[in-house]
Amino acid sequence: MDTLIDVLQRRGASLRQSVVDTGFAVNMFIQAAGRLVPDGRHRFRAIVEQFKSCGLAPLPVVSVVGLFTGMILTLQVGVELERFGQAERISDIIAVILFREMGPFMTGMILTASVGSAMAAEIGTMAVSEELDALECLSIDPVSILVMPRILAMALMTPLLTFIGNLIGCIGGGIVAATQLDVSVSVYARNVYSSLQATSQQLGPLPEEIYTGLAKSLVFGVIISTISCAAGLKAEGGAIGVGRAVRTAVIRSFLMLIIIGYFISWMFFR
């Protein structure tokens, strides 16, 4: 039977390992940031391939999830508003929820499960099969050729996918509003536009609700790619190690999205 000391020692070792892994991920991100300028045809090709993997591949899933998220939110909230004769105000609520919070969070979750896990698996497989060591023997920096393109692509593609998902979500909400709540399309579209414009701060042509969600998405993209690549680089122990790296990347990304998402919202809307 484990004693209290044994339990505390295990928890302390787990905490220490989490701190070490965090330091490794931060150091890796700093190294990748210093290699943003592609210095060769192969690195440019790697960046283009990652744009496809991080942008085009998840687009159908993001679109479907965005569409039905908007429809579900509109149906659930709209039914309650209809009881008070305020069904036409559903567009105000849906637009703010999607662009400010729900859109970035849902897109981040989708990219974590699809793209982030794939990153951890790909790099982890290379790590356990000693391909990373082979790259270093050839004087090829793994951070430059593997990590930097993935972080750059995720940082740029996540806001774009979020914005597309938000628009499709608003369209889905409009479909439900018109068919289930008897709210005309013109009224719905006008209220969506006015709710996004009715903010006290603007960054150029973008209202606060939009650029807040895009900024949050950019941070989410960096977090997902950094955690996933770091987990892959530290993978060891064959196929089991690769599976462990994928699980670690997904769990830590989910937790960080929730925690960092709260602090970003608090910073913008306190």
What's the β-strand tally? 2
Chain-averaged pLDDT: 86
Return the string of H and E elements. Answer: HHHHHHHEEHH
The coarse overall form would be elongated
Please give the order of strands in the largest beta sheet.
1-2
Low-confidence runs of at least 5 consecutive residues: none
Helix content: over 70%
Q: What class do helices, strands and sheet pairing give?
A: mainly alpha
Rounded to an integer in angstroms, the radius of gyration calculated over CA atoms is 22 Å
State the major sheet.
2 strands, antiparallel
How far the N terminus sits from the C terminus, by CA atoms, comes to 49 Å
Strand content: under 5%
Number of helices in the DSSP assignment:
9
Overall number of structural domains: 1
Describe the structure.
Helix content is 84%, strand content 1%. The protein has 270 residues and is mostly helical. The protein has one domain. A two-stranded antiparallel ribbon has the order 1-2. It starts with a helix and ends with a helix. 40% of the residues are buried.
Write a concise keyword list for the protein shown above.
single chain; 270 residues; mainly alpha; two-stranded antiparallel ribbon; 9 helices; 2 strands
Give a concise summary:
It is built from nine helices and two strands. It has 270 residues and is mainly alpha-helical. The chain has one domain (4-269).
